[in-house]
Amino acid sequence: MDTDSLARAAAAAMWADDRATAAMGMTLDHVTHGAATMSMSVRDDMVNGHNICHGGFIFALADSAFAFACNSHNRISVASGARIEFIRPAQLGDHLSAVATQIHQGRRTGVYDVSVTNSDGGVVAVFRGNSATIGGELVTLDEQGEQQDA
Is residue 147 part of a domain? Predict the structure, then answer.
């Protein structure tokens, strides 16, 4: 199995149990080895008292894209830290896209950057996540490197 096929299989396994991401209306648009793109539309229940998207939802979108990117190696990984810089507000009805890219992936730790853009392509936020590999795999491969049936 090539690395991008493995990334897609790992993402499918993660997606099957990711109720939080689905509940926020996020979609996994693309995943490859070390990268992922997710999107979400800003709904009425995501707008804060300033009538803009609550930053927590923007963070959650970036964090989810980061999660799919750092798990694309089929090694179970979690966040060990993250930070976000908000550049401009997201508005009700905006369609946000988060593109996560691998900066470094070692045996146990990784660094990933995520850019969140709005419907017009303007940068809403930039996010940097640090991952920690905790052991185990999302999909099981046989001796030939092909996915085993569950």
Answer: no
